[in-house]
Amino acid sequence: MNFDTLPPRLRPLSERKSAILSVLDIGTSKVVCLIARLNPNTSSEAPRGRTHRCRILGIGHQRSRGVKGGAIIDMDAIEDSIRRAVDAAERMAGVEVESVIINGTGGRLGSQLLDAKVAIGGRAVAQPDIHRVLEACTAHGGRDGRAVLHSLPIGFSIGETRHIEDPRGMIGEELGAEMHVLSCDAAAARNLMLAVERCHLRVDAMVATPYAAGLSVLADDEAELGAALIDMGGGTTTVSMFAGGNLTYVDGFALGGNHVTTDIARGLSIRLADAERLKTLYGACMTSASDERETVAVVQVGEDGDHPAHLPKSNLIAIIKPRVEEILEVVRDRLKASGFPGHAGRRIVLTGGASQLSGMPEAAKRILSGQVRLGRPLGVQGLPESAKNPAFSAAVGLLVYPQVSGNEHFRPSRVPSIAASQSPGYMGRVGRWLKSSF
């Protein structure tokens, strides 16, 4: 197998023990740190796979600097954002964070579906047979320079009988398996881990952002019957498909909400901060009859802010709408090219910060031709009202991941230590936090 095994493998949580968990969502537009207490779940109505109830103890979020298109471009800048987000969460929770689960969005996320068969000689299937057929799956694929994030068994077969969830104890001549391997560029994963380790934090695991978002926002029936999840972030948009309760496909591209903001700033000749405010307060991707009558105040670059110009809202919509349509058209093309048209089942769930733009579900329904809803984090207690929105879906999903990580196939986890000598400026840091910088 030629895959790099860079991200560490997380040990599954004990179903009978409580734990305090810290996660870090490092995105293009924001960095979010959540600290939560996970208590064993005794409710029969809990979503499938959730063995624990999550209660948020601390939350910290900062504007992300040093990330573009999901990839790190300025190590010092993103380190500062991470430190500030973690410090805010620590102060709120009253605990000290030593290790985190992080997400990976950049690095050209990609999927491979692998399958293999092994002979079992007419006897009952045992655990070593399952391990052997899954190892045979991973041996068939691999590309140099890629790091495996997840190895997810989709189903097993014995002879002509397919879609078996657990073949142990069943009798047959041949055991088959299908596996979904999700990977990213090893260099992108290494840089992301390095940024976190420079903050004196240990990386427990790295989770693909679309997988984390799916764990957070999809209802059990949606994941079982089939749904396409569109996670629209600041710098990237990812497309993932779930069917039979499994993640079956992932793709992504570097277009997101920040591109809409940049278009507004250029089209109206205003500052980026003002463009973001206009997008948030007045932006929409669908036209209405009142757009010509309503006006928005803009202060162009270099002009006196005491005398803003007033432009019809329709001018703003005319800038936003083409970019949103472009993003959704790329999503449509990626879904068609995926080879899994039946898996999406016409059910589409939008999540991520950029999905909150007014009229986005209607625009997606028109372009993607499906039933569309906006996905928000499900089943987490203590989340502030300001965080109960699609922008925090991936962060909440990172809290769910340890409860389902035991379903993954074992990956060799020889994690190269990112030594202090590899981090410019690292050795000069004294103490865990540079309190004077806050």
From TrEMBL:
One of its GO terms (biological process) is FtsZ-dependent cytokinesis. SUPFAM superfamilies: Actin-like ATPase domain (SSF53067). One of its GO terms (cellular component) is cytoplasmic side of plasma membrane. Its main location: membrane. Keywords: Cell cycle, Cell division, Cell membrane, Membrane. It is found in: Cell membrane. Residues 21-217 form the SHS2 domain. PANTHER family: CELL DIVISION PROTEIN FTSA, CELL DIVISION PROTEIN FTSA-RELATED. Cell division protein that is involved in the assembly of the Z ring. May serve as a membrane anchor for the Z ring. Belongs to the FtsA/MreB family. Self-interacts. Interacts with FtsZ. This is Cell division protein FtsA. The lineage of its organism: Bacteria, Pseudomonadati, Pseudomonadota, Alphaproteobacteria, Hyphomicrobiales.
